[in-house]
Structures are given as structure tokens and as C-alpha cells.
Amino acid sequence: MTKIVRQPFEVSERVAEMSVSSTLRAMQRAMAMRAAGVDVVDLGAGEPDFDTPAHVKLAAAEAMRRGETKYTATGGTRELQRAIIGYYEREFGARLEPREVMATAGGKQAIFNAVVTLINPGDEVLLARPYWVTFPEIVKFAGATPVVVETESDGFQLTADAVARALNARTRLLIINSPSNPSGRVVPPAEFRRIVETCAGRGVYVVSDECYLQFVYPPGEVFSAASLPPELRARLCIAGSFSKTYAMTGWRIGYALAQPEWIEAMLLVQGHSTSNPNSISQAAATEAMNASQDCVREMLAEYARRREWIGGALSEIPGFKCFAPEGAFYAFPDVRGCLYDDVKTSADFAEKLLNDEQVVVTDGAGFGADGYIRISYATSMERLREGVRRIRRVAEACAR
Ligand code: PLP
After folding, report:
1. pTM for the complete prediction?
2. pLDDT tens-digit series, residues 312-350
3. In CATH, 54-290 is 3.40.640.10
4. Is 208 exposed, middle or buried (0-12, 13-18, 19+ CB in 10 A)?
5. Ligand 1: residues within 6 Å at CB?
6. Domain ranges, ordered by start, for the chain
7. Which atom of ligand 1 is nearest to the CA of 132?
8. pLDDT one-digit tens code per residue, 259-295
9. Which fold has domain 13-51+295-399?
């Protein structure tokens, strides 16, 4: 018999470079504590506490009854493509052709496809700090170098000037996420356009992650890069998601909008990795976009109520500095006023919140912003009040 070589499993160099998602880690800890019967207040979750709207679930059930349980085209059914095109025309006056649209298994896959089809080893990719945890990991996986655009002195507001300062001959791509996870900042439409113009003027591409597209609070404006003129759109890939807008995180459905050549390349990658996104989820997503958007408005009104409350409540906590979130469903306070000998970093502070008061938040370091924590208000008002009460107790003890 052939001798079998026994040796420890060695992970590939690319994967060895990856860090575990800090947001997923926080979620897993909360789940484990809850399973052990602990009264946890989970303000770590990046997912809506609402159920998927009933009419969307019904559309999925009907699709199953009709037997829509087979492979579809890699980029999604014609019905879903039409629904996405119709939605962008109604909401943003954008004219898209079917060859500029593809469905993906979540916004995450759209970003992954976009990055790996554009980037070569040695390229640089700009990310605004604080960035969503997954961006640098995808960039590194593609063999490129993430380069951070500093925004802290501008209150985490990304500007065209900051982007212009960060560009160099190796820059190939900027990834922009407005409304932002984790900061809750929203780039105003005129500034957004200037940012894309700045990149386009230097031959740099832009991925616009519009995962929280509709979750903007007045006086901010809902804006999609799809409404930019065609010459700018040629430099852009929009990564869209149904996860947050329609409370559909588990359905794994999203989309990419880009020029036809870019879409073709992304279809090639997707065709050899996951193929089409789930056929049932596609039917549900088609209904979500075609039907009345009242369900989105209702969820947004509830987030707005919580956001109003949490902005005030956090700014009264000793040692916290917090600006009002402009979009998404996260507050991102600076907790450096609570740090001392035993609690040196925001990670220590988050750990203390968990150990002393069983509150889960996400440390800012994973987003490139040590000294901050992310608090999700995608939870009921009652749990939010309880969570903030507990955070306050820890902060008072630390700030003393
Ligand atoms: N982009 C941002 C900023 C996110 O926060 C998320 C999810 O948390 C995604 C993209 C991906 O969402 P999904 O893959 O569920 O569509």
C-alpha cells in the first residue's frame, strides 16, 4: 500500500493573510452566551430585527410551488433583472440595460466579483477609514494593497480632496460605502459626484457599496451612483443588496450594476464559483422591488425613531463623544474618554461591556478605528434602552 504522508494542514498564503470578521465574531459570542441562558443585550448585530415582509415570503413560496427550483442564468432571471432596472428607473431616473445588471448571492459577492475582476497583484485600493471589515480582506485576497484614506479629522466624512491626496500611480480602485457601516456617515450627492470625477480623471475605478441605500435620515438625501451620467458610470460598479433594505439577510441575494464588459468578467467568475444565486431568493427579491415600498418606509421610520433617541442618550454618557448617525443603523462613538490603565483600548472596553454587563458591541479596531465602538440600533427600543443603561454603568466606572 502507498505510504500516506501525514502532516498538519497548511492553509494557502492568501487565506493565511485573512482575519476573522470582527462583526461575525461578536455575533457568534452573543449567540453562544444566549444559548447558555445569559441575558445578553446584543447591539453588535449588523442585521435588521424586522422579519422579511409577508408579501416577499409569499412570492418565494409561490416560486417553489411553481417548481422554480432549478438553475437559472448565472446573472439571475430575466424577471429579477427587469425588476432591478425598473426600480432604478423609478427611484433614481437611471437607465440601465440588462447587460449592465447581474444578480449575486448578496452584496458581498458583488463586491468580491468586482474587485477580483479588476485588480492585479501590486495594485492599490483606496478605502476610507473607518471601512467595512470585509473590504481590506477582499483586496488582500486579490493580491492588492489596501490604502487608507484618512477621514477622522473631517469627522469621518469622505471628501474628494482627501481622495485626491491619497491617489497615486498605483491606485486602481476606490471602494466607497455611503451610508457607511460603521460610521453612519452619508456622503452628500454633490461630494459623491466630485469623488467619482476625481477618480475618473485619474483613470481609477470606483465600487459604490450601496448596501444601506435607502437608510438615510433627513436632512440627508437618498442617492445612488446609478444616477450619475454615463461617462462616470463607465468607471463604476454598484454593489447592491436586499439584505438590509428588505430585512432579507438570510436569503443571500444582491446585485451588481456596471458597464457590460465588467459584468461579463464578473459573470465568468461567478459562473465558476457559485453559479446563479438561489432561485427562490431571486423570486422573493423580484417581488420586493416590484411591489409597494411601504414596508421599507415603515422600517425606516422605526430606525429613525431609535436613531433620534440613541444620539441623545449616547452623548450623555461620560467619556463618550458621538455624532448623530446620518444613515444606516449604527452609532459610532469615540470611547477614548473611558480608557485607563486596565482598559487601554476600545477592544478592552468592548470586552468589559461583555463581561461586566453582558452587552455586545463591535470594537472599532476591525474597522480601522481603534478608540471607537460600533453600536447597532437594529434592535427593539426596549432592548436598546436596556443596553444603553448597562453601557452607561460601565462607562461611569471607567471614566471616574
Ligand atoms: N456592505 C456593507 C457595508 C455591509 O454592512 C454588508 C453586510 O453587513 C454588506 C455589504 C453585504 O451584505 P449582503 O452580502 O448580506 O448583501
Report:
1. 0.95
2. 999 999 999 998 999 999 999 999 999 988 899 999 999
3. yes
4. buried
5. 46, 106-108, 132, 177, 181, 209, 211, 241, 243, 249, 254
6. 13-51+295-399, 54-290
7. 3
8. 999 999 999 999 999 999 999 999 999 999 999 999 9
9. Aspartate Aminotransferase, domain 1 (3.90.1150)
